[in-house]
Amino acid sequence: MSGPSRFIRSQRMTIVSGILGFVVILVVLQLWLLTASVNAYLGGDHAIVVPALGASLVCFGLGAGLLRYLYRLE
Amino acid sequence: MSPRASDLVDPDRPIRPPDGRPLATQPQWRRDFPIDSGQDEYVSRRELVKFMVLTSGAFVVGQAWLLLKSLLTRSMPRPAPMAITAVSDLPVGGARTFEYPTGSSPRLLVRTGPASFVAYDQQCTHLACPVVPVVAEGRLHCPCHNGWFDLATGRPVAGPPQRPLPRITLNVRGGIIYATGVEEIAS
């Protein structure tokens, strides 16, 4: 976290905007996933629950990794 | 003598006021409290990324809750069989509501023929209005939003409902109709 950044501010602005766009897409995907899972669960299809949780965890991991990268940029 | 705010500015990162004019031409209050709009925008976006990742975590919690609920439902013991009514008390085409297990939402038992019976949860899977049997058409009708279900299978056939009605398994012994279990049919 200390020391000069590798990127100038305008570059970091581009990076944070890109990451923000990607994370928003991941969150929208997770929202759709949760909606579809609840719908399937209420319809009696319980088999979908585990893979949906796995996929949601992967999305969260990607987002958290990108956030960590963002903090390490400074 | 205390330093002026403008003296504290990092020369490698010049402050950019929101209107883009030099700091020296800005009003006194902005020179006293110089906020770099570029840095401000950067921090705002970074905080938004953090908020979105927190939202993402909340969705994971939602999925985990669904899994937990599924595991708890699976580990619950089957309710014991329960007598609903005598066969002789229910004419062909007739229906009767009951609770199974006790305290549940209303269930609907329908006699579709001399020796055939079906039972479903009475709550429509759209918005939980009570469904009514239309035995002559072989369907169940939800009058709230004109939803229709197949009487033989409980599957939705028309209208807004997308999921089938939970089915109650039945057993007829000694002239008595028993409810023996609740089946969620995958749509």
Describe this structure in words.
The complex is a heterodimer of chains A (74) and B (187). Helices cover 78% and strands 0% of the residues of chain A. Chain A contains two helices and no strands. Chain B is an alpha+beta fold. In chain B, 24% of the residues lie in helices and 28% in strands. Chain B has helices spanning 28-32, 37-75; strands at 82-86, 95-99, 106-113, 116-121, 132-134, 139-142, 147-150, 156-158, 167-173, 176-183. The A-B interface holds A 9-10, 12-13, 16-17, 19-20, 23-24, 26-27, 30-31, 33-34, 37-46, 49-50, 52-53, 56-57, 59-60, 63-64, 66-67, 70-71 and B 13, 38-39, 41-42, 45-46, 48-50, 52-53, 55-57, 59-60, 62-64, 66-67, 69-70, 73-74, 125, 162-164, 166, 183-187.
Short description:
The complex is a heterodimer of chains A (74) and B (187). By secondary structure, chain A is mainly α. Helix content of chain A is 78%, strand content 0%.
